[in-house]
Specification:
Blueprint: E1 5-6, E2 13-19, H1 21-30, E3 34-40, H2 48-59, E4 67-71, H3 81-87, E5 92-97, E6 113-117, H4 134-142, E7 145-149, H5 153-164, E8 169-172, H6 178-188, H7 199-205
Parallel strand pairs: 2-6, 3-4, 3-7, 4-5, 5-6, 7-8
Antiparallel strand pairs: 1-2
Helix pairs in contact: 1-4, 4-5, 5-7
């Protein structure tokens, strides 16, 4: 069931806390606008200023009257586009795993409507499967135009699924925070990162034939 209520941040409206991809898509259709979804890192970029400059240039091509801006609901990383989109007059939405409902402090205050999708993981493919998790299914289904500025494995999987569905994809290379990735490697015992460009770059940043 979809129940709309105010969230923990003053501007948020929680559309549902355990939605299916189909319910999420139905809600988006009620908004009556085309959907530009931004994909990217959920943590810091090496240059947030560079990332936001790209996002501002992208959004300058679209009208707030006809398009809304969708991201993954949280404020970190690519979520920094939310305040920019709001300042430019766009309605904003967020699609995120129900896992995030335990961490409402990370939900951006600049998201007008938040859809929590019933899921056991943050997104990407299901274990030992090529099938997308419910959250990623909803992200792809609700997006009319997909714009990625860098991005990791989850973004890569969602972009590939969208590509298979014939949806337009625009990819802009951007590095994840070097400091973050190095510290993460040390903390988890992983080897020193060989690249800071992200998993999505390996396909879409190099092989231009994969882009629309």
């Amino acid at each position: 069931m979809i129940q709309q209520s105010h969230g923990s941040n003053s501007g948020n409206k929680i559309v549902g806390t355990a939605m299916t991809p189909a319910e999420t898509l139905s809600f988006f259709k009620t908004l009556g606008k085309k959907v530009i979804t931004f994909f990217g890192y959920s943590v810091d970029y090496e240059s947030e200023e560079f990332m936001l400059a790209i996002a501002k240039d992208v959004l300058s091509e679209y009208s707030p009257e006809k398009f809304l801006v969708n991201i993954g609901a949280t404020s970190g990383g690519i979520g920094a586009v939310y305040p920019l989109a709001k300042a430019l007059g766009f309605k904003t939405t967020g699609i995120v795993s129900s896992v995030a409902a335990k961490h409402m402090e990370y939900i951006s205050k600049d998201v007008d409507h938040v859809c929590f999708v019933a899921d056991t993981q943050w997104g990407g493919k299901l274990p030992d499967s090529n099938e997308l998790s419910p959250t990623s299914k909803a992200m792809v289904a609700c997006s009319d135009i997909l714009t990625a500025i860098g991005g990791g494995e989850v973004s890569r999987d969602e972009l590939l699924a969208a590509r298979e569905q014939g949806k337009p994809i625009h990819f802009y290379p951007a590095e994840i925070s070097h400091r973050y990735l190095i510290q993460h490697a040390k903390k988890t015992g992983m080897s020193f990162p060989e690249s800071f460009w992200g998993a999505a770059h390996e396909l879409f940043g190099i092989n231009k034939s994969l882009r629309k």
